[in-house]
Write a structure and sequence with these properties.
The complex is a heterodimer of chains A (332) and B (279). Chain A has 13 helices and no strands. Chain A has 332 residues and is an all-alpha fold. The N terminus of chain A is likely disordered. Helix content of chain B is 74%, strand content 0%. In chain B, helix 3 packs parallel to helix 12, helix 4 runs parallel beside helix 8 and helix 4 packs antiparallel against helix 10. Chain B is an all-alpha fold. Chain B contains 12 helices and no strands. Classes of the chains: A mainly alpha (332), B mainly alpha (279). Chains A and B meet through helix 2, helix 7, helix 8, helix 11 and helix 12 of A and helix 5, helix 6, helix 10 and helix 12 of B.
């Protein structure tokens, strides 16, 4: 009894400085995200040093004259000391100046602004498909007592994770684009309802080869953890209606531990857009990255890699915050 | 007979049937990868017949656009695909586990936090993206893939090893070992090391699946192995232009790739279930 009183006393105290705690927690997460973003910048900058020999010479090829190489060195800022180069790179990024593309002769930020929305549409559509399937699937698997359901679920997700997305893409193109003509083989329109016609098949490919399997596994195991909690039993005793039971007693508390991992999954999904976009010839940021890689357009490669890294940092920051908001017990 | 019964009992334990079927699938593909280069009559780069012949008794998987035998090429690719993935997993595994243990047991807060955020920074890049971007600077090739995996992938292992090492080093049995007066080296080698690496080995097996897919994916894009090399991703890409008329050119290497990746994935799942990590 005394213990109970002491515990409730603690709870009251917690309520009092809740806002302060909340601010501190957010601040800590922000500092950590900023530190990670700093390293992302350093890695993107150092990437150019990976090249054996001179990057300018590599970019131009063997036939270029010494003079051309020197001009490019100056353009890339390679003639200055390393630290100064980094400071320039860093301050450029802060100002939103990502450098100039070598092949297109246009600002890299311009490339990003035209290509990024397309990729985000693809990732968004993929996420919608994934969650629409994952939530009922995970609820069904976690609440089912059948051994066969568990077995089929585990093996099929194990297989799905191992499917190479580019091969799945080719097979689905063969079926849906060539045989049934349900999806266009090439091309893209950037405006909203029209672009779904081009994006649905790539989004489905991404969902089949990995995302659904990973997400449903995470959510299903989180739900079966929740099922062991005592309040779930209480809910069953009180005779709560089934939909209410599924959503308020099972799904909602199970989402908090999932969110951080879901953010990780989203990051992986962003990574796979590169290969998927190139197969479906969708003019997203992944296609731009590959084009830049093939034409040895170093500033564009650097900037796009940085953007990818930054997006993942941002997503996991938001995921962290969301997880904390859903369940205050979550620690850093 | 008793041996058979023992075996039956072993298979009936949860997870073991998956481990067994996955291992059989994996051993099959590895065996084919050894036997076909040794004994099969066609080499991977020989022009053996007319281009784009459908599968038949002479050409088991058909021929490709240049008249090379796809059966031979598919199984010549085994050691390249799985070998690169094996190297690309083992080096980061060793590096990452070691770094993680050092970070997890170190008492210097500043250094561990700094390297900790560096690890997060590396992990922020999706593996495919940083591989593609780095190849722009390193040049295409399987060796570039290994270099990139060495530079980048250790961070994932270090993250896991660090978390585990923090937990392990605070465990009672480590304290007991210190109290008993065991030397530090012994505690690291015999107590902390095995406990941490059991966690990273589990991750390494799952990572192997992803790295096999990464190597093939990069080759598919023309960034790792390039034609005419016999490699699954590159072969699938070569067959893309003949997808409608001659499906077998892409399909057989694709199936071999799926087969290998799925086999390891099933083993991972079976092992997890044995450990009781999942129901």
């Amino acid at each position: 009894m005394t213990q109970l009183i002491r515990e409730s006393g603690n709870a009251e105290q917690k309520v009092v400085d809740n806002r302060k705690v909340f601010a501190v927690e957010i601040g800590l997460r922000l500092i950590r995200a900023a530190a990670v973003a700093f390293w992302v910048t350093v890695i993107a900058f150092l990437m150019m040093r990976l090249a054996p020999g001179d990057p300018a010479r590599n970019s131009l090829g063997i036939e270029a004259t010494q003079q051309e190489v020197e001009i490019l060195q100056k353009q890339l800022g390679l003639d200055r000391p390393l630290l100064e180069q980094f400071v320039n790179f860093f301050s450029g990024l802060l100002r939103g100046d990502f450098g100039t593309s070598l092949t297109y002769n246009r600002e890299v930020s311009d490339i990003i602004f035209t290509a990024l929305p397309t990729s985000l549409w693809l990732v968004l559509l993929n996420s919608i498909i994934v969650w629409v399937i994952v939530i009922p699937l995970a609820l069904f698997v976690a609440t089912s007592k059948s051994v066969i359901v568990a077995y089929v679920f585990r093996s099929s997700t194990a297989i799905s994770i191992a499917l190479p997305n580019f091969f799945v893409a080719l097979l689905l193109i063969l079926v849906f684009s060539i045989k049934y003509n349900w999806a266009p083989l090439l091309g893209y329109t950037p405006d909203f309802p029209g672009n779904l016609r081009y994006l649905w098949l790539p989004a489905v490919v991404m969902a089949i080869s990995g995302s659904i399997a990973i997400m449903s596994r995470i959510l299903a195991s989180s739900i079966s953890d929740t099922l062991r909690e005592e309040y779930v039993e209480t809910g069953i005793f009180r005779g709560i209606s089934r939909p209410r039971f599924l959503f308020y007693y099972l799904l909602k508390p199970s989402l908090a531990p999932t969110v951080a991992l879901a953010a990780y999954g989203l990051g992986t999904a962003i990574g796979t857009t590169a290969i998927i976009e190139s197969i479906f010839a969708i003019p997203g940021i992944g296609t731009e990255l590959l084009t830049a890689v093939f034409s040895r357009d170093y500033p564009t490669v650097q900037a796009l890699a940085f953007i990818f890294g930054l997006m993942v940092v941002f997503i996991s920051f938001v995921g962290d915050l969301l997880a904390y908001w859903l369940d205050r017990r979550v620690k850093l | 007979m008793t041996l058979f019964k023992k075996f039956r009992r072993w298979v009936d334990e949860p997870g073991n049937s998956l481990v067994l079927s996955g291992s059989i699938m994996f051993v099959t593909v590895v065996l084919m990868g050894i036997l076909v280069p040794l004994f099969y009559r066609f080499g991977p780069y020989d022009f053996v017949g007319d281009p784009l012949q459908p599968p038949s008794l002479t050409y088991l998987f058909g021929t490709d656009q240049l008249g090379r035998d796809i059966f031979s090429r598919t199984f010549h690719a085994v050691y390249r695909d799985l070998g690169v993935a094996f190297i690309g997993v083992s080096i980061p595994f060793l590096m990452g586990t070691l770094i993680g243990i050092i970070l997890g047991t170190s008492t210097n807060k500043w250094v561990t936090n700094l390297i900790g955020s560096l690890i997060d920074g590396i992990n922020a890049f999706p593996l495919l993206i940083i591989a593609v971007a780095s190849i722009a600077f390193l040049g295409p090739g399987l060796s570039s893939v290994i270099i990139i995996l060495t530079l980048v992938n250790w961070a994932r292992y270090a993250k896991i090893a660090r978390t585990k090492a923090v937990v392990v080093s605070k465990a009672n049995y480590i304290e007991a070992a210190y109290t008993l007066g065991y030397p530090k080296r012994r505690i690291f080698r015999k107590h902390i090391g095995p406990n941490v690496s059991s966690e990273t080995i589990a991750f390494a097996l799952g990572d192997f699946v992803l790295v096999v897919l990464l190597v093939a994916g990069l080759s598919f894009l023309g960034l790792a192995s390039t034609p005419p090399t016999a490699e699954w991703g590159a072969m699938i890409n070569e067959g893309r232009s003949y997808l409608i008329s001659s499906k077998w050119v892409s399909t057989f290497p694709g199936v071999a790739l799926c087969w290998s990746a799925i086999s390891v994935s099933l083993v991972v799942d079976g092992l997890n279930r044995r450990e009781g990590k999942i129901q």
